[in-house]
Amino acid sequence: LSQSGSVMTEAPYTLITLLLLARLAxxxxxxxxxxxGGIVAYLTLLRSPxxxxxxxFLVEPLRRKRWSVAARFLAAPCLAxxxxxxxCRWNQGRSSDAAEWSLTYRGQDGGQFLRVAAxxxxxxxxxxxSCFLPEFWGGAKVGLLAGCAFTAAAFTGAVKTLRRNPxxxxxxxxxxxxxx
Length: 180
Hints:
It contains eight helices and no strands. With about 180 residues, the protein is mainly alpha-helical.
């Protein structure tokens, strides 16, 4: 309930991402990508996981070796990401994202990134698994095991999809999001 009075970005991000993936699954041509690049730029600014969409909308021009088209597609998202990074740098310590990165990584060794990634992976897998379990089981090892099972099912589905179509935008987006 603490967030009930706050406008959150998850719903519009998810809706616009689904619309983008549906657009990418349709016919592809060189005029479609520029608009898709603008949508990806918007999603990158709306939520940083928007970066996971970059491979999904770039795969088609890169597969066809249409380098100028790929560069044109990348223009808007790169510009958006550059402005966002500049803003974070300018406001270091004054924005929650910049402060979190600074507190987590400043003065730490290179292994800190891996420790944080492992901790986040465990947390998210447990959270995912706990969403589908009775409350008294949630958050425990059972939640982690369920999260691992659901993740394995998603991975299996993505692999099957990529075997049929190695350029499937949704499967590529899922894979890139997992890396984040």
